User: What shape does this take?
Amino acid sequence: MRGGSIAPGAPDEMCSADGWDNGCMAQEESVDLKLDHHNKDGIEIVDVEGEIDVYTAPRLRELLIDLVNNGNYQLVVNMEKVEFLDSTGLGVLVGGLKRVRAHDGSLDLVCTQERILKIFRITGLTKVFGIHDTVDEAIAHRKSEK
Amino acid sequence: MATVEVTFTPLAAHVRTARLVATAVARRSGVAESLMDEVRLAVGEACSRAVETHASQCPDEPVRVALSSEAGRFEIEVINAGVSGGLGAGTTDDGLVPRQGDGNVMPPGFSLAVIAGLADDVQISETEAGTSVKMSWPLSGSLAAGSPA
Assistant: This one.
């Protein structure tokens, strides 16, 4: 890639918070997306941290597919630590929603960040997904729907 | 003449780098901090779209991003060599081949619709060189005139 040196592990001259978005780019290249999941009250909670874009979204897609294939049809995706979400990520979430709904399941989101909610509003997907402030609120909502 | 030009191999892994460069130049050019999320998202959408087009049509051609500021506006132009169609929902893990099948759940043109919602001035044109997506945002008054990138 031309236009700038971006090798991982580059010296501190690359790590100026004033010059680069979100601080040191070399350090952030190793932490694109973190995924974890656990079960709470019969609902599978998927914790997502980092950036969901065209490069990292396939990993989230594969996790959602695996969870559904393993019989987990009630999902809550916790996006409180998501720093970036684009239409590729939206597509993954919509795909996940379609999969669980094929089993009469649900996929709710947890997000209070305006920077992430913005793309849901622009695309009208706030009408499609249940978006909650906390995981416990999402679980309570889903329990009350049953 | 562009303030900064970036070209990159059409791999999904490089889209994030293009976002970082674009927002850094936008910030230095004087775009308001309140608009940075829009800038980041819009350039990411345009570059993702370009990467997917190149992957299917011309994987050996680079994607080009031109960043410039003039006449009180910061402009980003993303140029891809292919003829762009709709946007799918991602690529395979190697970032080269657009994912087909149930991975592409969004309708064609969805990405362009997102970009149109993020920038108040969007121009899309098909040329012999390929497809150009231009987006621009206003510069803050105190930094707008003659600021180096």
Notes: Chain B has one domain: 4-144. Confidence is low (pLDDT under 50) at residues 86-102, 142-149 of chain B. The longest helix of chain B spans residues 36-57. The beta strands of chain B are 4-8, 63-70, 73-80, 121-127, 130-138.
